[in-house]
Design brief:
Length: about 120
């Protein structure tokens, strides 16, 4: 039974930080492609960050590069998204995804499994 469970969302002030977690079960975590996406109201879901757990290769969208960090913890079968210097435009529901079947990582239709999402709100 494969499952992705996100946690760690919340309300934070501009300039603040949050750390999201995505616990993966039922996957071969040591060799897994995972990503974080986000979807703001009225907007399409966009890719934020991608990681290949086998060698920790990462990719980021231009909008978060230098502020967000994706990282794996193989002991906990969990992928994290550390978000620093948050901006109001980072407000969205954040989803993790696993098992990419080809394509480009930031295309949502190439991912087989999704979590339920966690809300991040950046506001003063």
């Amino acid at each position: 039974h494969v499952q992705l469970v996100e946690s760690g969302g919340g309300l934070v002030k501009p300039g603040g930080s949050l750390k999201l977690s995505c616990a993966a079960s039922g996957f071969p975590f040591s060799s897994l492609c995972m990503a974080w996406f986000r979807q703001a109201p009225g907007k399409e879901r966009e890719g934020v960050a991608n990681i290949w757990t086998a060698d920790h290769t990462t990719y980021y969208s231009d909008s978060v590069k230098g502020r967000f960090t994706i990282s794996p913890d193989s002991a906990k079968n969990t992928v994290y998204l550390q978000m620093d210097s948050l901006k109001p435009e980072d407000t969205a529901v954040y989803y993790c995804a696993a098992e990419r079947r080809g394509g480009i990582w930031y295309q949502q239709d190439v991912w087989d499994f999704w979590g339920q999402g966690t809300q991040v709100t950046v506001s003063s």
